[in-house]
């Protein structure tokens, strides 16, 4: 991506406000926390103390808005504790410039390494460096350090107390993540009606899994609607895909395809209703029209074979989803009631009935009988408590202590820029010299895309914010209490908009700083001049540091692609091995391989997105080849998922040909991954030979053989996409 294009994209995203992500009540609560701290200290203390203490409540409030699954009071307290320690150390060392620069460098290095633990830890650590920079402007003594550290911690305590006393949508983040997963599957079902091989982004399911990880205390207190749903959502996705697929499901045209389209539409309606119920903690309300579609038809098209089995399994899963809500089921009558199709006398809930004729596999429900309800899983994925997180964090830090680590490079850049910015700010004939390093610290991220975007957005927002704040201060000349009120309004707007347009949020922050300094009697004209000039200096330092010591994602694309290929291959091997030895099938092994494949796909997509934003030429793989390779590997994962949706009975005979195919694929994966990294052609000869032998033994009508053929086609597409010859270019344009 060129610099001009990156600038345009940054401006577009920085000014975009997503209304669906706004949380006015939560923003109001956070602003009230800042108002309480400023008001109390201004009443009981002095304006300079009120300005200094406001940072604790402000930064702790920012921590509670991050995408974390830990309780919000814990985030506020953890942020306040870290800020208090940083304040104390900064106050103690502020009187000795050399000692402070050394401390600042070491503290910034640790803050940069905190990104190894997670983005929330990295952001909180960044705030800790910022508050250390602010302390250099205040008197330094041990007693004063303790005093101001306590004020910073007090701000976090206020925010945590407000979250406990004024709960707003408890478990809202977990509910939203799970509801988003079901809403994504509802959208997937509707898209399958028009495109039977439509892709599905597993990110919502991954987010739901992260949200389901909780501490033992959370697991005991979680609502009923957050128990058991996620496992059902995981099982629904492959069934939807297998029902719609024209190869393993219903034919591409004809009456059966129309029946499948109706079932997919009804499934989308049910899943949307479930998503709404989870998001708002209400009973599931199913429209009568959808329930009528899910009844056994007395006449009309009937599904057969694998499509019928998929329909039966889909209806059973939808019944489990509705029943696992542990809430009364409400049926919404249609606007124009129509008599439902005739059904057998023994049927009960429409969502619990088979969609078509009786099943032809042992254990499947038969027509005229309700589907057996399976109790949803009650066990939670346990998340380590804060004390137990310490050894995990140390191990994460040790893993990043290598020269090629993007986190280590970010930490080194952060330390160098913080020290250089502090020294330059001190030498310039401007007040508030700490703004230059603080601007650098707040915009720097481990990747170029976010650093560049945040740097441009912060400078633009600073111009707008200080101009508006300065104009208000010049025209209205508010006193300290009015300035405090205006500062609280700005921080409330920042909390409201911080999850959307960063440019708009930066403008609110800059205006907040202008009004906050107005409490202490700072001249607005000097504030505007200093803030703009030093913010520009800090942004330039950040960009210069990344240019001199980069960590580009573009050269890593082939490594990410090779990792995804290996993970996809292990997933396919696990599924085909289950078909080769039905009695020894291990669903847990398949599940673990699927999670690894999703993680590898996410790593690829993140790297590919970052590489597109980098102003560097591709190294080893062009954008077109990367897109074709991504399509091939996505198809490979989709085909494996289709086969996973149709596991064999444990009583089925073993398949030596399937075992040979799985063994050939397993043996070819390491060499193929090495070839991707080394830019060598891929060789799938052994896999082709195993597939030919399988066809000879069992024919081409068996479902595993058809899936194996699709899988090998995807592997050939990958080889063509990565080939540098003319034939490779032509094959890279194909889509499975």
From TrEMBL:
Entry superkingdom: Bacteria
Region span, Disordered: 331-371
Location in or out of the cell: Membrane
GO cellular component assignments: membrane
Assigned keywords, A-Z: Membrane, Transmembrane, Transmembrane helix
Residue stretches spanning the membrane: 26-43, 74-92, 98-117, 124-143, 149-168, 414-435, 455-474, 504-520, 532-552
Membrane topology: Multi-pass membrane protein
Pfam name, any one: FUSC_2
Main localization of the protein described in the UniProt heading: membrane
Domain Integral membrane bound transporter: 422-544
Name used for this protein in its record: FUSC family protein
Organism: Streptomyces buecherae
């Amino acid at each position: 991506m060129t610099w001009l294009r990156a600038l345009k994209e940054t401006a577009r995203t920085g000014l975009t406000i997503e209304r669906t992500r706004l949380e006015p009540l939560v923003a109001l609560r956070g602003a009230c926390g800042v108002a309480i701290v400023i008001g109390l200290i201004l009443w009981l203390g002095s304006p300079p103390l009120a300005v200094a203490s406001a940072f604790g409540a402000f930064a702790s409030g920012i921590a509670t808005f991050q995408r974390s699954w830990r309780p919000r009071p814990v985030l506020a307290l953890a942020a306040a504790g870290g800020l208090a320690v940083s304040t104390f150390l900064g106050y103690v060392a502020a009187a000795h410039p050399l000692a402070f620069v050394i401390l600042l460098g070491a503290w910034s290095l640790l803050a940069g390494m905190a990104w190894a633990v997670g983005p929330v830890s990295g952001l909180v650590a960044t705030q800790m460096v910022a508050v250390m920079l602010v302390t250099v402007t205040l008197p330094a003594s041990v007693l004063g350090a303790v005093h101001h550290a306590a004020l910073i911690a007090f701000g976090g305590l206020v925010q945590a107390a407000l979250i406990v006393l004024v709960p707003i949508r408890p478990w809202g983040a977990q509910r939203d993540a799970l509801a988003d997963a079901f809403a994504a599957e509802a959208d997937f079902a509707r898209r399958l009606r028009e495109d039977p091989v439509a892709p599905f982004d597993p990110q919502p399911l991954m987010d739901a899994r992260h949200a389901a990880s909780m501490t033992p205390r959370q697991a005991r207190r979680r609502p009923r609607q957050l128990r058991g749903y996620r496992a059902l959502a995981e099982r629904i996705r492959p069934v939807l895909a297998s029902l719609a697929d024209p190869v393993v499901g219903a034919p591409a045209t004809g009456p059966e395809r129309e029946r499948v389209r109706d079932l997919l539409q009804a499934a989308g309606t049910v899943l949307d209703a479930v998503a709404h119920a989870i998001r708002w903690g209400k009973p599931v309300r199913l429209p009568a029209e959808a329930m009528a579609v899910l009844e056994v038809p007395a006449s009309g098209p009937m599904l057969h074979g694998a499509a019928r089995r998929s329909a039966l399994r889909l209806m059973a899963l939808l019944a489990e989803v509705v029943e696992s809500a542990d809430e009364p089921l409400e049926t919404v009558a249609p606007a124009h009631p129509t008599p439902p199709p005739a059904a057998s006398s023994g049927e009960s809930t429409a969502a619990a009935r088979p969609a078509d004729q009786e099943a032809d596999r042992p254990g499947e429900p038969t027509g005229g009988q309700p589907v057996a309800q399976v109790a949803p899983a009650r066990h939670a994925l346990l998340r380590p408590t804060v004390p137990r997180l310490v050894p995990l964090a140390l191990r994460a830090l040790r893993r990043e202590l290598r020269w090629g680590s993007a986190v280590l490079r970010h930490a080194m850049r952060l330390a160098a820029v913080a020290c250089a910015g502090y020294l330059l700010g001190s030498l310039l004939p401007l007040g508030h010299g700490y703004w230059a390093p603080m601007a650098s610290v707040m915009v720097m991220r481990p990747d170029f895309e976010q650093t560049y975007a945040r740097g441009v957005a912060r400078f633009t927002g600073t111009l707008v914010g200080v101009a508006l704040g300065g104009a208000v201060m010049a025209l209205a000349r508010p006193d300290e209490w009015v300035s405090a009120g205006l500062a609280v309004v700005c921080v409330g707007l920042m909390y409201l908009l911080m999850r959307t347009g960063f440019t708009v949020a930066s403008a609110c922050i800059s205006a907040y700083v202008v009004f906050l300094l107005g409490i202490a009697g700072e001249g607005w004209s000097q504030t505007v001049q200093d803030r703009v000039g030093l913010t520009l200096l800090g942004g330039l330092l950040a960009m210069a540091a990344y240019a001199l010591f980069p960590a580009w994602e573009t050269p890593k694309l082939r490594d990410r692609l090779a990792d995804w290929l290996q993970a996809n291959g292990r997933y396919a091997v696990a599924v085909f091995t289950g078909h080769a030895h039905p009695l020894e099938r291990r669903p847990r092994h398949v599940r673990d391989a699927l999670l690894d494949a999703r993680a590898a796909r996410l790593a690829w997509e993140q790297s590919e997105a970052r590489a597109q934003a980098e102003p560097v030429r591709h190294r080893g793989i062009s954008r077109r080849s990367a897109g074709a390779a991504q399509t091939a590997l996505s198809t490979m994962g989709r085909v494996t998922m289709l086969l996973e949706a149709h596991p064999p009975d444990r009583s089925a005979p073993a398949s030596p040909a399937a075992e040979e195919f799985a063994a050939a694929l397993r043996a070819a994966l390491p060499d193929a991954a090495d070839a991707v990294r080394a830019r060598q052609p891929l060789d799938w000869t052994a896999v082709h030979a195993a597939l030919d032998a399988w066809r000879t033994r069992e024919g081409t009508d068996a479902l595993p053989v058809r899936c194996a053929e699709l899988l090998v086609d995807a592997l050939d597409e990958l080889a063509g996409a990565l080939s540098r010859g003319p034939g490779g270019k032509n094959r890279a344009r194909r889509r499975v």
